[in-house]
Here is the input.
Amino acid sequence: MTSEQILAFGLIAVMMAAFLWEKFRYDVVACVALVAAVSLGLLSPSDAFSGFSDDLVIIVGSALVVSAGVARSGVVDLAIKRFFPALSSLHGQMLLLLITVTVLSAFIKNIGALAIMMPVAFQFARRSNVPPSVFLMPMAFSALLGGLMTQIGTSPNIAVSRLRQELTGEPFTMFDFTPVGATLAVAGIIFLIFFYWLVPRRENQNPSLQEALEGSSFATEAHILAQSPFVLKPLHQLLKIAEGEVTASAVLRGETRLSPFPDILLHAEDILLLEGPSEALDRIVSQGNLSLAGHAKPNIIRGDLSSIEAVIGRGSPLIGQTAQELSLVHTHGVNLLAVSRQGKRIRERLGQLTLRSGDVVLLQGLRAQMPSILTELGCLPLAEREILLGTSRNVLIPLAILVVAMGATALGIAPVAMAFFTAALAMVAFGVIPVSEVYRAVDGPILVMLAALIPVADTLRTSGGSDVIAGWLNAAAGGMPAWGAVAMILLTAMAVTPFLNNAATVLVMAPIAASFATGLGYKPEAFLMAVAIGAGCDFLTPIGHQCNTLVMGPGGYKFSDYPRLGLPLSILIVLVSVPALLMVWPVQ
Here is the structure.
């Protein structure tokens, strides 16, 4: 090897070791590797930041914004409530969750699809009286499988498409991934349906602060609007939306306070006193077309609104006062949406409730002014999390934006980067996602890591290092048939992915796979697809993909739980994908 190749291999090896060490965050490691590549002469300063303008970074960032917009709309939860309101069979619930997550993951970021469906899984778990761990790991694996089906489903597919364009002048199109990806998804879902029991049933023994807050119960009051579909319907039908998480303490009709019997018919302009977690209250308010008490005086507060949980501190001017007496809308420009009081069920009307020190209040106001308002009110904000209760959402707009973006790329009207960048911009322009939430939706560390790794990984190609590794693989392959060569690349990518970010795996492995195929006299497409599949299918650890990490805490899983279900699934993926790849992408 030349000295340049030795330096390139050494840099990649040190970078991988730093990723494994996890002492520093992966984006910091990638940036240090970028500076090192320039310092060692592997990269020219003019090429160092080329990754920041790469389509891969634009597509991944835009897809995250689009995914967040779809998640905020609540369309999936609404559809399941409408079409599967009484689904009680465990196998039926599992099948619905897996299919939904898989299909969603094909069109939005797979971790976004998983996040959308996790609340539904918790509802199904309560309905079937099983721990959420029964559903969560199979859902995470189905999200990974769904991401294999389209170009935008997961970042490895986007990276592989870009590399094919560099090699052949023609990228993979949106649905070039679908024949093999859909085959793997179907095989994976069938396996998960019948073998989900391989995962032990676990309980989350160490809930985080955010998860503890999600279980806290708030009291609020909501108005039945004339256009609500629950007018002249019994109360229990409305409460059914929340799967038993919300209770009604009273129904106010004019000056009359009625007992909240389940069969009482609701009338327009009734006021319901409700209590439950904020997410469950949000489902009732949004799906029931209700209006919160804090919105009784519309148009007073306009602009970018935010809802935040805060605890009333000692010495707060709110102590001993009622919301009606304080008139918070006029004096401070905030709406009091709900109140939570530890150890006590609140039965008073929200405006007549005397506030105490230690009460948790849910306030809504202009996002930019909330910090100063909380200081004035002597309230301490709790852990930052998105509160959707009281925010207006439109189901049709985000769906229409997603469909148009998908159609534009499928018909060749616009390249993927431009189509999804425009879709992300439309999500903001139409108010689907607030401007202040955009940069929270964009996973900055991942984008920085990608932008820094693109030129660093390319040093293997420019130095000839990828050709050297391909030569080693060629020697190892010997007289191996085509299926064996494809399986070797697939297994190598699968082996590397648990220790690297999946996008990093593609950036390192794809050039090697292409050189390996060329050395054997084969077309590169099947080998590039094998890299994408291997990088997108980490079923063995909770750290190889964000989807696996996301469900570890809520599911109460141990590290050793993942290979119990993931190892046989990985074997199945290898057995199915190799013949499928050779059939769809012949190597000769």
